[in-house]
Amino acid sequence: MKAAWLLFAALGLAARGQSVPPAGPVVQVDFSNPGLSPPQWTLVLHSDGRGHFRSQMGRVPEGGLKEIEAPGVDRDIQVSAQFAGRVFSAAQRHNWFNDPCESHMKVAFQGWKTLTYTGPQAQGSCTFNYSSDKEIEALGDSLIAVAETILEGARMEVLLQHDPLGLDEEMEFLTESVADGRAQQICAIREILERLAQDDGVLERVRKRARALLAHGST
What we know:
- Helix 3 runs antiparallel to helix 4 and helix 4 (167-180) packs parallel to helix 6 (204-215).
- Helices cover 41% and strands 18% of the residues.
- By secondary structure, the chain is α+β, with helices and mostly antiparallel strands.
- It has one domain (2-215).
């Protein structure tokens, strides 16, 4: 039963997304790793921080849900202009992603990242699992961390509606992820955090952590 409502709720999240107008230069990252959940997502960013995130729905474990899997997401998001500026500056420094970025080194598979720039200056794209270019590798990690933030926000929306007690563990995980950099740009999920911070129906620990995360602003 729990798996059934999660499937229904996850499908409902996708209907809330609105596509970002295509005007102006954009940087897009496409991520895929069949061993993860979700196995694929796409993040599109504009230079002012507007963006759009789309992901496939994560796998639901057989025999019920021990953990909340990431729902399918298709929605507009907002990151800080400073973060977006760093992304676009990196694209410019790397020839608008026209230079190869895969190291071809024998390293563990981390997932394919395709960085694409489309704008008036040029167009370019490169794909890598691991890049020996420190800035490209760090850029990939940062964009993955933004995606993790968005996915955590989507999980919390489902929990708030169907399992409020489960928010305690999920919020603890997000707080730890922000502290060690696995989750970045908390401003991308400001709406759900503000709801949690003001909701008397959730645990006080959840409200307190939501307020603390909001205080991080655009980190």
